[in-house]
Amino acid sequence: MKSTLQSDKSKKIGFPESALKLGVKRESVAPQLISPWVWGLFILSITIFIASIFLSINRPTLLPFQTVNPLVFRPLPNFLRLPLSLVDIVMPAMAIIAFCLTLIWLPANNFTRLIAHTVVSILAIRYLFWRATATLNTTHWLSVIVSIILLMNELLWISTYLLYLFQTTWTTESKRKQEADRYEKYVIAGEYLPSVDVFVPTYKEPDYVVRRTAIGCLAMDYPNKTVYILDDTRRPHIQKMAEELGCKYITRPDNKFAKAGNLNNALPQTDGELITIMDADFVPFTNFLKRTVGFFQNSKYDLVQTPQFFYNPDYHARNLGISDKMPNDMEHFFGHFQPGRDNGNCVICCGTSYVVRRSSLEAVGGYYTGCCVEDYQTSIKLLTNGGCIAYLNELLSMGESTRTFADFLDQRLRWLQGNVQVYFRKDLHIWTKLNWIQKSFHVSLIFFCFNPVVRLISLIMPLLSLFLGTAPLISSVPEYLYFAAPFAIAFIFVFGWATGKRLSAMWNEVYETAFCFPAIGRLSLILRNPFAKASNATRKGVKTDRKNYNFSHTYPLWIMMGLTVISIVIHYGGYLFGVWEINQHEYVGKEFLLFWSIYNFIIMAVAVLSSIDQPERREVDRFPLCAFCKITIDDKAYWGYTNDLSEEGASLTLNKNNELAKIHNSQDGLLEFVEHGFNVKCTVIRFANQDRFANVALKFQDVALEQHQKLIVLLYCSLEWWKERKKPNGIDVNLEIFSALFNSKSLLSTHKN
Questions:
Q1: Containing domain of residue 564, as a range?
Q2: Is residue 385 located within the same domain as residue 479?
Q3: Which residue in 20, 225, 472, 700 has the fewest CB atoms around it within 10 Å?
Q4: What total number of domains does the chain contain?
């Protein structure tokens, strides 16, 4: 009896029964949580230990300043001499500010981007020339190493940026829209209607997610299409759902080669001239095929890719409570970088929301199975086979963005591994069969894959300098103002302006910082074993009632933040309180290190706060759809409009009348969408009578298939105002970074969802 009770108790706390059978005591293996006060004591002990080291050597650095830094501040070479007056020193920065303010009134098109990118490129080269010829610390071998590492880090980053400017100056956005307008006429007129097979590959997605996508695919306004659900988990209820909806169902006995294998399995079982891929969490608009199919009248096109947009905010915006202000982090890639790649015929196939010519796909052996992802690699096969991929930058579908920080990391690390694997495959002939412009995009991608290393060095360098005492570069404040400030100002402003306000330079650093340490770990694994097993798919339909601080993913940033505070307190606090004597020569250039350390701390803090996942209690998203409606309760009709709507319920505002007092919770009713011609059974779950109106919250009941289809079309299958991308101005975006530091919601409370 005692053993039975012990076993039952162990199950409640998650203790393995196998351990009990082996005679292991529960207390010896059960996980123990460390109390917050213990962590605080540990951190305080580390701080005191580090402080005692510096106090014992009676200086704020581990190495004597005079050993690793020049005692006499060096003069600049004649060709880099500063102007004598302060006005002349700040004049370049003021001129760039004026230039940037002028850009506010100009649209970001090919011509204006060419001018802006040229100015930024000149300033970047000017800055690099100054850094390479006048700022290296050559006093000591350790100083040389630190100084050269920082210079090479900046050289790599700026080289990547200059290549990016070259690749995104001229885009095809307007050209492709004109083509789509022209080709669409033939589709609408019925003069070009090739057969289209719509594939919906699914792997463990919840039923309602797959159902939503299938309904959206069936609702596409195109007559000659067949929708196939490709179920890689062999679920009988998914097969039954496909039959109910009128879709074809295809499965296979195993999951070999993951999504690529699933798609390849369907190819010989279908015969459409064109193939459309919609991931199980993406819903196409009704005009998706009208806008894309027409391109294939031109025999040169093998694939047409459209951007990925998302109906829910990404993790950082939601966790910080700024989802109404911030665009999705992928908008920069899909809205700005892909149109630039299109100009060089190097568009990346992105796994969903695209149409491909079957004959072109079969000519390269189907979907590529040699990497952990199939899309990018398949597009490389098409391009190396002489193909052409077009990019239509129009919002024609929407999907589900990752809802948690852990899922974001899992997805991006899988993409990172797939991108790096490309360069280890001998059957992807990037360097022999592509032209030099296409090759430049692959060089750029290599740099991008190793960008976490650049970010890591940028985070570590000021800490290393403050603790060791070696200056990573020798410069004065006037030199920063004259050489560095113009480039920094132009970079920050032009980055946001040229991308159409899709991404700001500072928020880009937040993303890179949050991703940095997990990416470094994955890169180290990839370099040892490029084809190590990766995850198969990102979780969808995530729901949780708990806040998740994700310490296991962000603890390196917590450590870095702690070390930053310690270094600033020991170094500058020691000067402030007279612990260290101020040496004027030693203090030269420390202003830059202080600014750099504080800036890094802010970026790391926002990255950490954005990674604290808030509870996600709703299974389906609600949208701010305003629709004229009538609700009938106990044979009484009440008129109003919806405030928001989901597949499961709605919030209404009803016109005030004397009969409203009869409404109460748990009443059943019938909600009619007057302008859309359908109704849904519902139950009142909340009622609030106001002075001039009443608010009613409803839960839908017994929704029939036809009604559900109309709900899906109403919510997901057309372009509404809330689906338009957000365009915050640069000042607002950057202010959100600082406001996040003083907003305790992500730490202490939860956001409504």
A1: 37-62+556-612
A2: no
A3: 20
A4: 5
